[in-house]
Design brief:
The chain has 124 residues and is mainly α. It has a domain of 84 residues. 61% of the residues lie in helices and 0% in strands. The chain contains four helices and no strands. α2 runs antiparallel to α3.
């Protein structure tokens, strides 16, 4: 039997997580980020609405993965997979936003009946 199998057979288990105080700090940081998300949703940041919301969401999900899924003290391979996954999501979101922003705007001929809004503001 290997040394790790012997330690598990004897009931010994190496603790990889944080202390209770550490988990409390992570939890309080996540609560702060949630309140920050709510506050920024109430603000008009113009073109920065989406990037700020994505940055906060990415920070919260990374913190959850690192500490509650125990990737902080895990092997380098798992940490690399997490970082690669985050970069892949950033790449896909960036490409989608770039695609939408470079499309031609939908246009209608001037004074087109199809796109006129009646004086009362009600569409038919």
């Amino acid at each position: 039997m290997s040394a790790s199998a012997d330690s598990h057979a004897n009931g010994e288990h190496k603790h990889h997580g944080l202390s209770v105080g550490g988990y409390t700090m992570v939890f309080l940081f996540l609560i702060f980020c949630t309140l920050l998300t709510w506050w920024t949703a109430k603000q008009d940041l113009g073109d920065w609405n989406l990037p700020v919301a994505l940055a906060i969401a990415t920070t919260k999900s990374t913190i959850v993965c690192l500490f509650f899924m125990h990737l902080w003290g895990d092997t380098r391979v798992n940490q690399f997979i997490l970082i690669l996954s985050v970069l892949f999501v950033i790449l896909m979101c960036s490409l989608t936003i770039a695609d939408v922003n470079t499309r031609f705007p939908l246009t209608a001929p001037p004074n087109s009946e199809r796109f006129k809004v009646p004086a009362n503001g009600q569409l038919e």
